[in-house]
Design a protein that fits this description.
Strand content: 15-25%
Number of helices: 6
Number of domains: 2
Order of helices and strands: HHHHHHEEEEEEEEE
Pfam families: Cupin_2 (PF07883), HTH_31 (PF13560)
Keywords: DNA-binding
GO molecular function: DNA binding; DNA-binding transcription factor activity
Protein name: HTH cro/C1-type domain-containing protein
Strand order of the largest sheet: 1-2-3-9-4-7
CATH superfamily of the largest domain: Jelly Rolls
Length: 228
């Protein structure tokens, strides 16, 4: 158990170096039906929601999409949980499997209005890593802005709830505990957080929030998307 952050271990530095190989870049590929340049730093959450929504509307399982595309089920699941950014060729295969043009998945993601506002009653619930063990609720605070480099969420974590395993994703992340208490697992260490505590960390290291306490916790979480 650790109550304070310590300097990264050599093993951490080595893993971080390996993870950098996965970082996104601006793709110069193009598709005939695209009206925008595909950019792998585009908003992952909106892209993931479009893919998941189309798949569910067509009553397709991840296994069926995997069979049609030649991509693995686990990788497709990471795409739908906005943990990885698909390359344009992979995205084209997904679009083909869903029976839609690639443009339907990406057009509009590069629009950049100067200001967007989301009222409290306009928050959008987004599914992420849902399971019998993880009933946490993610509320998007910026879903109206289609192209964004940050994704802020309010995460409501009931007592005794946690994601099944610690997982990594690209980019950086900021957490602020608003109410309650949570444990934060990071690279094998556990940090006990209470209301008002915050963390900023490299999200390419496996991590997860755990509410091992008797009261519901609410955490502000901000994902910083990797930029080219």
């Amino acid at each position: 158990m650790h109550s304070a952050l310590s300097w990264p271990s050599p093993s951490f530095r080595q893993r971080r170096g390996e993870n950098r190989k996965l970082e996104t870049h601006r793709s110069k590929y193009c598709c005939a039906d695209l009206k925008v340049e595909y950019n792998t730093a585009m908003n992952l959450v909106e892209l993931a929601e479009r893919i998941r929504s189309l798949r569910i509307d067509q009553r397709l399982t991840l296994e069926e999409v995997a069979s049609r595309t030649g991509l693995t089920r686990s990788w497709l699941s990471k795409v739908e949980n906005f943990r990885v950014t698909p390359s344009l060729p992979a995205l084209a295969e997904i679009a083909k499997a869903l029976g839609v043009p690639t443009s339907k998945l990406v057009e509009g993601l590069d629009e950049k209005p100067s200001l967007t506002m989301v009222r409290k009653n306009e928050r959008k619930v987004v599914e992420r890593d849902q399971s019998d063990a993880n009933t946490s609720v993610y509320e998007s605070l910026a879903h109206r802005r289609k192209s964004r480099s940050m994704d802020p969420f309010l995460i409501t974590i009931p007592p005794g709830v946690a994601r099944e395993e610690a997982l990594p994703h690209l980019g950086e992340e900021f957490l602020l505990v608003q109410t309650g208490n949570v444990d934060f697992e990071y690279d094998g260490d556990v940090f006990k957080l209470q209301s008002g505590d915050s963390l900023y960390f490299d999200a390419s290291v496996p991590h997860r929030l755990v509410n091992a306490y008797k009261k519901t916790a609410v955490v502000l979480c901000i994902f910083q998307s990797p930029q080219a």
